[in-house]
Design brief:
72% of the residues lie in helices and 0% in strands. By secondary structure, it is mainly α. α2 crosses α3. The mean pLDDT is 92.
Length: 71
């Protein structure tokens, strides 16, 4: 599994870009969503955004949240 912080960032990015597209996103937004979708699909070993998001969310739920190191 990829670093959970990377997965979390990609999930948030895909969700944000999807919302923008639903409200009339630009060609640039569509390209960004395509790029983020591709990366998330590669990381999760899936072929479709919905499947990638579902798997990523399940992986994140099973991953303990890392606490910052105290000095």
């Amino acid at each position: 599994m990829a670093d959970p912080s990377v997965v979390r960032e990609l999930v948030e990015r895909c969700e944000t870009l999807r919302r923008r597209m639903a409200s009339g996103g630009s060609a640039e937004t569509a390209r960004q969503l395509e790029d983020a979708t591709y990366t998330l699909c590669v990381i999760t070993g899936t072929r479709h955004l919905d499947a990638a998001l579902d798997l990523a969310r399940r992986q994140l739920r099973r991953t303990p949240v890392r606490q910052p190191m105290r000095r």
